[in-house]
Automatic annotation (TrEMBL):
The name this protein goes by in its record: ABC transporter ATP-binding protein
Gene Ontology MF terms in the entry: ATP binding
Keyword terms of this UniProt record: ATP-binding, Nucleotide-binding, Transport
PANTHER family referenced in this protein's UniProt entry, alphabetically: ABC TRANSPORTER ATP-BINDING PROTEIN, CONSERVED COMPONENT OF ABC TRANSPORTER FOR NATURAL AMINO ACIDS-RELATED
Organism encoding this protein: Nocardioides deserti
Family matches, as Gene3D superfamilies: P-loop containing nucleotide triphosphate hydrolases
């Protein structure tokens, strides 16, 4: 069994974010079950798992939208489990959502201006200059859309606008919920480079993401949730090789005969699994390179907001 105890980076006193034995129950459903993991400053951390595994619920607990049934969340060494969203935000936590939150009737530039105002300029103390806003648009790669209405831009661009709005708050921790959906391959590559740059500045990034190429390519550490529990934590290489992860994602494991597992979780024939042996493809997630394996009993839950 892998060790899921809280790990500290050498030299750092406390991790940027600690999720400590968090449990979330919705009536009879245990959405998160004793989840314990950390996200460190200066690194990109992935939180992955099949549909309904509890990723969004975890994000909601971390950002303050969902009170946990048990357990603690510590951010920059302080227990924030009971703190409201705005206090976590003031302390340096920023989040983007699966559902886009920009003001549709405003231009892309004005959306970023409003985000700056909310985060920094409400008291009139700090006003962002046009240069700051344009630099941010440039940084996330959406300058060409600066004067477009936010409701007229492509979905992938709108996700990058969400990221720009989040960065306007200069967060120490970025929580990104499926940030690459809607991006094409080149945009996804550029986005991965941007994540690495943001981490190199010392920010921590925790991302829920279904694009396994992106996750495996940019994450320093990956935590895998399945049925609410963390079943593996480690580097991309560790995660790829982990038999429990292979079982959760693919319905097979190298150390267990395929015929015992394939039908149990994935509900597909061994031939289809054979095509995906070397790649992790989340159940229910589309990929043009591999067979999509539907999860037995998978749900498409609404975010808790
Ligand atoms: N408000 C709620 N009431 C009851 N059950 C819920 C609620 N929110 C989530 N759940 C259940 O909790 C479990 C975890 O859901 P969650 O949305 O966190 O998973 P997820 O990993 O984010 O899934 P996806 O990848 O599909 O977004 C699911 O079984 C879901 O049906």
């Amino acid at each position: 069994m892998p060790d899921h105890s809280l790990q500290h980076v050498a030299g750092a006193d406390v991790p940027l974010l600690e999720v400590d034995h968090v449990v979330v129950q919705f009536g009879g459903v245990t959405a998160v079950n004793e989840a314990t993991f950390v996200a460190e400053a200066g690194t990109v951390t992935g939180l992955i798992g099949p549909n309904g595994a509890g990723k969004t619920t975890c994000f909601n607990v971390i950002s303050g939208l969902q009170k946990p049934t048990r357990g603690k969340v510590r951010f920059r060494g302080r227990n924030v489990t009971g703190a409201p969203v705005h206090r976590r935000s003031k302390r340096g936590m920023g989040r983007t959502f699966q559902r886009l939150e920009a003001f549709g009737s405003l231009s892309v530039r004005d959306n970023v201006r409003v985000a700056y105002d909310i985060h920094r300029g409400l008291a009139g103390l700090v006003k962002p200059g046009a240069k700051d806003i344009d630099a941010l648009l440039e940084r996330v790669g959406i300058s060409a859309y600066a004067d477009e209405r936010a409701d007229s831009i492509p979905t992938g661009t709108a996700r990058l606008l969400e990221l720009a709005r989040c960065l306007a708050g200069d967060p120490k921790l970025l929580l990104l919920d499926e940030p690459s959906s809607g991006l094409d391959e080149t945009e996804t590559d550029d986005f991965g480079d941007l994540l690495r740059d943001l981490a190199a500045e010392g920010r921590g990034i925790l991302m829920v993401e279904h694009d396994m190429d992106l996750v495996m390519g940019v994450c320093d550490t990956i935590h895998v949730l399945d049925f609410g529990s963390i079943i593996a934590s480690g580097t991309p290489g560790d995660i790829r090789r982990d038999p429990a992860v292979q079982r959760a994602y693919l319905g097979y494991s190298d150390d267990v005969p395929e015929h015992e597992l394939v039908g149990a979780r994935a509900g597909v024939g061994a031939g289809a699994v054979e095509e995906t042996r070397t790649d992790l493809v989340p159940v229910g997630a589309a990929s043009d390179a591999t067979t999509v394996i539907p999860a037995v009993g998978a749900t498409t839950p609404e975010d808790v907001r």
